[in-house]
Design a protein that fits this description.
The structure holds 2 protein chains of 2 kinds.
Chain A: H1 3-6, H2 14-22, H3 26-48, H4 51-66, H5 79-98, H6 129-141, H7 144-155, H8 160-167, H9 171-193, H10 195-199
Chain B: H1 3-9, H2 22-30, H3 32-54, H4 62-75, H5 96-113, H6 127-130, E1 133-134, E2 139-141, E3 155-162, H7 164-168, E4 181-188, E5 194-199
Classes of the chains: A mainly alpha, B alpha+beta.
């Protein structure tokens, strides 16, 4: 048996597909869309909490790609990072317009955030149904700048370089925000499991009456 | 090894089962704080993977691809489909609802008739033979339908039909998705009869 004939051919690279797209090849456009749309849809869905918004974002992202002046420069990063960057801007515009963001924006100072939580609770049930739901809520409740980096790097497994392109920041910032975001997540989950411990943060420091 | 040295050798979210040295092992046995922090990180990593796994099948609905393909064709000046000859687009100015309704009825009549022709061996007798691609446009000629003549006015309407309609034409359909509708372009002859169909997936 011819093994080579049985082996599915690897998907075409983004660069080759883009060349074909620029020459008017509809199937290349469809192939690129099918390779990339799901991750962008999920990113937009996590960020906006709205399926219609996520659908609109995916459509707009690929409409932008059709334009000759779409602004994609392979020298500055991969197509994946570029597409996520467009999606991010569209999501932010959607959120600003509709105020339908799933989490309240917070003006937390990055430097003032806690280090990764140290807790005896191993959070072992995070992979169970309720644990997953709690973790998803915790992700959605993160301030936007932390939520987007967790969604990109931890949920969609985008590498740091692509995430930096998408977020328009240096790789070091991606790393530090991710570190802070994970700390916030652990903090949030620990608080949910141990409300009494969370109340310690509300302990009055002086009496006013 | 102290705590700082331990975390210097243990990148955040690293899998402690991979490449952890003897000294790091010993530190974990002696330092409950680092061990707890590492357990928390591992649990969070597994939880995030579970969240991602729950959403792994999510994606934009098929209609987005249809819209984008239409936009691509318009952007590149490509006709909506490639019939044997240019259609008389004036006919499309008639109310599209009428055409769509007619197309669904005619297509349904063709497809409903097909099960009776299924041969005993399970092969869709008459269907396989009759199904031929029309040019390279992706259209499938409907069984027993007349070919579009060289001077005939052709028209096309886009409809949504049950995915099971694809089975009647000998196409493979995932049984789990058989209930889901699928968009299709139906090519109509000048007599209004459906001649060919192209499924958009």
């Amino acid at each position: 048996m011819n093994e080579r004939a049985m082996t599915p051919s690897p998907p075409e690279t983004d660069d080759k597909l883009l060349i074909r797209i620029r020459s008017g090849d509809e199937e290349a456009f469809a192939a690129l869309y099918r390779q990339r749309q799901a991750a962008i849809y999920r990113f937009a869905l996590h960020m906006s909490g709205s399926m219609p918004a996520a659908e609109d974002v995916v459509q707009e992202v690929f409409l932008v790609l059709l334009r000759e002046d779409c602004g994609f420069d392979p020298e500055r990063g991969t197509l994946s990072g570029y597409l996520f960057g467009i999606a991010r801007k569209l999501v932010l515009r959607h959120v600003e317009r509709g105020r339908s963001d799933v989490a309240l924006e917070s003006e937390l100072d990055e430097a003032a955030l806690p280090e990764l939580a140290v807790n005896d609770d191993p959070l072992a049930e995070l992979t169970e149904r309720e644990g997953i739901a709690a973790l998803r809520r915790a992700v959605q409740a993160l301030p936007r700048r932390y939520r987007e980096v967790v969604i990109l790097c931890d949920l969609e497994e985008v590498d740091y370089a692509d995430a930096a392109v998408a977020l328009g920041c240096p790789i070091g910032t991606v790393r530090s925000r991710l570190h802070r975001a994970r700390g916030l997540l652990l903090d949030k989950l620990n608080q949910e499991r141990n409300p009494r411990q969370a109340m310690r943060g509300l302990r009055p420091v002086r009496c006013l009456t | 090894m102290n705590c700082q040295e331990f975390w210097n050798t243990m990148p955040e979210f690293a899998d402690p089962r991979l490449g952890i040295g003897q000294a790091a092992h010993e530190h974990l046995e002696q330092c409950a704080a680092c061990a707890a922090r590492l357990r928390s990180q591992s649990a969070l990593k597994a939880g995030l993977r579970a969240v991602a796994g729950q959403m792994s099948q999510a994606g934009a609905p098929a209609r987005v691809e249809s819209r984008l393909r239409a936009a691509f064709r318009e952007h590149n000046g490509i006709p909506a489909y490639a019939p044997a000859r240019a259609p008389n687009w004036n006919l499309l100015r008639r109310p599209m609802l009428t055409w769509a309704t007619a197309a669904v009825i005619v297509l349904a009549m063709f497809l409903v008739r097909q099960p009776a022709q299924i041969a005993a061996d399970g092969e869709p007798d008459g269907v396989t033979a009759g199904v031929t691609a029309v040019a390279n446009s992706g259209f499938i000629a409907l069984p027993d339908a007349a070919e579009i003549g060289p001077n005939e006015d052709a028209n096309m309407v886009r409809v949504e039909v049950p995915r099971s309609a694809m089975i009647a034409l000998g196409l493979e359909v995932n049984p789990d998705q058989a209930w889901q509708p699928v968009q299709a372009d139906v090519m109509l002859g000048a007599d209004g009869m459906a001649r060919a169909v192209r499924f958009l997936e």
